[in-house]
UniProtKB/TrEMBL annotation:
Matching InterPro entries: Epimerase_deHydtase, NAD(P)-bd_dom_sf, NAD(P)_epim/dehydratase
Domain NAD-dependent epimerase/dehydratase: start-end pairs: 24-124
Name of the protein described by the UniProt record: Epimerase domain-containing protein
Organism: Caenorhabditis japonica
UniProt GO BP: L-threonine catabolic process
Origin: domain of life: Eukaryota
Single GO MF annotation: L-threonine 3-dehydrogenase activity
Length: 125
């Protein structure tokens, strides 16, 4: 039950018609909760590893969109996961900490002072 045959990849980018090297790729807009749910049900997904985000460079130029993608997207994932009783893993990032956090031997409990909308959205969730 492990391996590439058990992974469903998604992105907002549509693959070119001739891209054949990817087994199970699906277009997915993280802001559309119904399509997330449809994919979870149709593919019998039991765990979501959530990476989608607008990173700092793009996010700083369109803060409302960054908040939608980075926060509403997580909310959509969590609501679908709760409804279908599936696991979710959402990794954090150094962007959540900011320049005052020690870069070496970073403590488990530390103040987070992000300086970008990407970092702020990671702290929120």
């Amino acid at each position: 039950m492990y391996g590439s045959g058990c992974v469903v990849m998604t992105d907002i980018v549509k693959l070119p018609f001739d891209a054949t090297e990817i087994d199970d790729y699906n277009y997915l807009d993280i802001l559309n909760q119904s399509t997330i749910e449809e994919l979870v049900v149709n593919k019998n997904i039991d765990t979501i590893v959530h990476f989608s985000a607008l990173l700092s460079a793009v996010g700083e130029t369109n803060i409302p969109l960054a908040l939608q993608v980075n926060c509403r997207g997580v909310e959509n994932i969590l609501q679908v996961a709760q409804k279908h009783k599936i696991k979710v893993f959402i990794p954090s990032t150094i962007g959540a900490f900011g320049p005052t956090t020690p870069k070496e031997k970073t403590p488990d409990l530390t103040v987070q002072c992000p300086t970008t909308i990407y970092g702020v959205s990671k702290v929120i969730f």
